[in-house]
Amino acid sequence: MRPLPAAARLAALALAVLLAAPSASAQRVALAPDLDLVVSGGVQPRVSLAVQRSVRGDTETDAVRYGAGLRRARIQARVLYRDLAGVEYDVDGGSGTVESVDLFAFANVADGVQARVGYFPVAQPRGGILTPYFLIDAVDRAAIVERWFGGTLGGDGRDLGADVTVTGERASATVAVHNGAGTFGRATGNVREGISSPDIVGGPETTGLAVSAAAAYEIGLGVEVGAFASVNGADPARTDRGLGGRDYTTGGAHVYWGAVPGSQPVRLKLDALALRYADDGAGVQESAGVSALGAVGLGAGEVFARAERYWSDVDGDPDDYVTAGASYSPSAALGGPYHRARLTLAYQYRDGAALPDAHLVILQGQLAF
Known about the structure:
- This protein is mainly beta.
- Helices cover 7% and strands 54% of the residues.
- A 16-stranded antiparallel barrel has the order 2-3-4-5-6-7-8-9-10-11-12-13-14-15-16-17.
- 36% of the residues are buried.
């Protein structure tokens, strides 16, 4: 018998843990006096139909692709010392192989104050990794945020660094000093050279640092406002358009009325972001994006629609995105959390300027614990 792929093994492990304790949000095991292990995670299988238009001269053709697989198969493990400090390590098997996601140490240095050091999601747009994957409104994050990731830190939205987060009853703020390249090591890659290595100083190196900050405030009645800003002086490789990496400055804001799917009968979410790259010899480039989402709850389900516009260069034409669909939560129908078990059907359309036109239909399941 052939062994299961790594992703399938990870998904099976997540499902087994979920079924073993249907009432718990996470599993906590005592390892020793004052030392606990907390395990959580989730699985998101999906099937999809994609149609993308290509134009060559006067000829237009459509490429069609059917797909099935795992969007995510995530396991998060936290080792806690008296709930005062610990280490977190996350892995994901959605790509077919088990890959590291987060790895950092943290300490609760005061009431409502936490410090972290390692590889983790730094301050960024609210619709990015700061919104956990199991609380995404549709089947994917907003397109403008994913486009922002592609030109800054990369799709993971994580970087090597240190941060401090202060959380109050209604407000939170975080500031991070980080690598700036969206990589696990100070140089491109994970630097692990020993004294026996032929060259311990060679290879490409990341120079400079990035500083990022974000803040949010809950006004009341389900309304949250917030903003983020970042200055990156590391010339990250993802900013290269053929003339070398570029420094950048970026920022944005959000207004949410009902941030979490299934949290209230009507939800509205607005996001805006801007990105300015330094001159690389070919001029300054500025990008921007806006996104608006509306959702209406229907019992244990929700229908939603989102419209977005992203300018990869504000001097050019934008790419427009539309997402519409519905989700249903069997766990909510049984009185549990909406995100615990969810099935989402979404149609997405891209009217492209920098990118080709495309249609995408996705049916995605979710089990989270």
